[in-house]
Amino acid sequence: MNYFNQIGTLVRKDLTSELRTKEMLSSMLIFALLTTVVFSFAFDPDSDTVKKVFPGIVWVAFVFAGILGLNRSFLSEKNNDCILGLMLCTSDRGVIYLGKMICNLIFMIIMEAITLPILFVLFDFRLKGSALLLAVIVLLGTWGFIAIGTFTSAMAVNTRNSEILLPIILFPLIVPILIAAVQATGAILSGGGLAECSNWLTILVAFDLIFTVASWLLFDYLLEV
Amino acid sequence: MLAAQNITKKIGSKTILHGIDLHIAEGEFVTVFGPNGAGKSTLLKILSMLMKPTTGTLIINGTNAKEESAKVRNQIGVISHQTLLYDNLTAFENLEFYGCMYGVDNLRERICDVLVEVGLEFALNDPVRTFSRGMQQRLAIARAIIHQPEILFLDEPYTGLDQQAIEILNGVLAGLNIKDRTVFMITHNFEQGLDLSDRVIIVNKGRIAFEGRADGMSPYDMRDIYIDTVGGRD
């Protein structure tokens, strides 16, 4: 069967399952919204400091909610040994990685699309730069996070303390992505354009590609062990 | 049909399989016995391409499994004590998913056929989580044969089944054998193993320790051979 058809089938299966249970999306959303509300209570929205740390608050909410989702990403495959079923019908295990990655990316984008406007409202923040550029930065940051997060999630799922192990493995790896995403978001939020964030965007694209290709290539070995 | 030559598997410094040579003819039903940790499941995983051997060659239907894995995979079905089914999806959705992954033609028709074959046509749209253990195992059989594989690998398929479910499963498996499928089964149960088999193998310490025809062999004979071979372990 065509490589891309297999990826599409896998994504469709995960979306159907998630639509039915809403386990992953609901936990991500609730966590992101709670973080947002706690931050809005903890900080005075009018202070200048908050304006400066706002990009960091945005990414803290995204990353922690994302980790919660990633922890559940391979659980459905662990139950009843479904991962073996996938390994039986895919000659290239990269299909499983790409299917899971696309699905996780979709869930993250849905969570971010709901959380980001609420963050703007609660912190009374007005976007000075381009909304399109902000969307591109969020997308690139999320892609890199999910690319390596999906791989580490598959690595951690068979361990006893996977919920603790995943963030321990993942955080050091996403540092460059997190720094680049926060800096680029800050530049756009304070009215900057493409010129102000192009260096950070280059870093984001580079890490996105490195993480995606490396994880895709190594996924076969990961499943073998 | 299936030829495994000099299959060795090392995990770290431990050798799980020591140069296994195995030939299974078309339509043959081979049952493997052996104590826990003997390497039976590792052998099944290698033969069904779930695991790569450290050394050795696997040829299925004249095709080298390493060189043309996609072609070989379509000829293999696996039934395990785990169902490999998604609890949140219905029976139809599970079979549709696996059928799509294998690229099965006329999938809807094929799903209906396999569900009739395993006697689950009445539960087409029920979520798998509502099924009894026996029904789940029958659906697992349907999943394993959805792409009409020529070789079936069964890894302790009777685990967790009650007597009625075992009889239904035996009926379904006997039906599959009639249709000239090659079957490789691992079980700890001598009676069930001998009932359907043409040939029995005992694996011990990563090696084939006994190989013989199952015709006319009683579970008591098998038990004696087993104890002599593995030394009463397990």
What's a quick, concise take on this entry?
The complex is a heterodimer of chains A (225) and B (234). Chain A is mostly helical.
The largest contact between protein chains, plus residue counts on each side, is: A-B, 25 and 28 residues
| Biggest β-sheet description of chain B | 6 strands, mixed
CATH architecture of chain B: 3-Layer(aba) Sandwich
* Beta-strand content bin of chain A: under 5%
Strand content of chain B: 25-35%
The first-to-last residue Cα distance of chain B is 31 Å
Ordered list of secondary-structure elements with their pairings:
The complex is a heterodimer of chains A (225) and B (234).
Chain A: H1 3-21, H2 23-42, H3 48-73, H4 75-78, H5 82-89, H6 94-122, H7 131-156, H8 162-189, H9 194-224
Helix pairs in contact in A: 1-6, 2-3, 2-6, 3-6, 3-7, 3-8, 6-7, 6-9, 7-8, 7-9, 8-9
Chain B: E1 2-11, E2 14-24, E3 29-33, H1 40-47, E4 55-60, E5 63-64, H2 69-73, E6 76-80, H3 91-102, H4 107-117, H5 133-145, E7 151-155, H6 163-178, E8 182-186, H7 190-196, E9 199-204, E10 207-213, H8 219-230
Parallel strand pairs in B: 3-8, 3-9, 6-7, 7-8
Antiparallel strand pairs in B: 1-2, 1-4, 4-5, 9-10
